[in-house]
Amino acid sequence: MSVLTLGNGSNDIIEFVARCFLSPKDNAIYSKYAFAVYPLIVQALGAEGIEVEAKDWGHDLQSMLEAINKDTKIVFIANPNNPTGTFIKKNEMIRFLEKVPSQVIVLLDQAYFDYSNYESEDVSFSLVEDFPNLVISRTFSKAYGLAGLRVGYSVSSSNIADYLNRVRQPFNVNSLALAAAESALKDDEHLEKCLRINKDEKERLYKYFISHGMTI
């Protein structure tokens, strides 16, 4: 598919985007309490990282918009956020995307989307058709349980996918990992079981914290 890019985990996708669009004179924007890889890859490429203060432990989209300047090339957003778990709903995300300059890439990192309770708020891959500067990344490392095999992917415009695939190593995902990912996509029963166990254990932790006087 011309819109698909495979990565050795979704970390690989993050690196592809940064390598394609960041140079030392550029900057990238991310939120405080965001995924640690964002500032690390920006620093590794000699670019400037702009950390925006969090809002209620999540992304302050308005402040992120205000931080964009002529040198901004990428805005990183994890949704749900890693590690705080906050979630940006679909309408809010669309309003944000409508205001981001078209030359600025928005990397929407959905590594933990399967664990969210917002299936109806899914920022669908179809949004890439409306926002050609949007890159949506996902992974098989979380809910699908294939972390050790390292399989991630992104959906983007064909133009961006072309750039990402130019910097991608030709054999970055091995055949065993691809076979496992294909099987995982067909095994809805296992995925539902994993999500159910996660939900049950989360509720157990909530009850424990509350019973010990902690605020959730």
CATH fold-level topology:
Aspartate Aminotransferase, domain 2
- End-to-end Cα distance, whole Å, is 43 Å
What can be said about the biggest beta sheet? 7 strands, mixed
CATH architecture annotation name: 3-Layer(aba) Sandwich
The sequence of SSEs as H and E is EHEHEHEHEHEEHHH
Structural class: alpha/beta
Number of helices: 8
The share of residues in helices is 40-55%
Radius of gyration: 18 Å
CATH superfamily: Type I PLP-dependent aspartate aminotransferase-like (Major domain)
As for the number of domains, it is 1
Plain-language structure description:
It is a single chain. This protein is of the alpha/beta class and 216 residues long. It has one domain: Aspartate Aminotransferase, domain 2. It is built from 8 helices and 7 strands. It has helices at residues 10-21, 37-44, 61-67, 90-99, 127-130, 158-167, 175-186, 188-211, and strands at 4-7, 27-31, 48-52, 72-78, 105-109, 134-139, 152-155. Helix 1 (10-21) runs parallel beside helix 2 and helix 1 (10-21) crosses helix 6 (158-167). The longest helix is centred in the last third of the chain and has 24 residues, at 188-211. The mean pLDDT is 93.
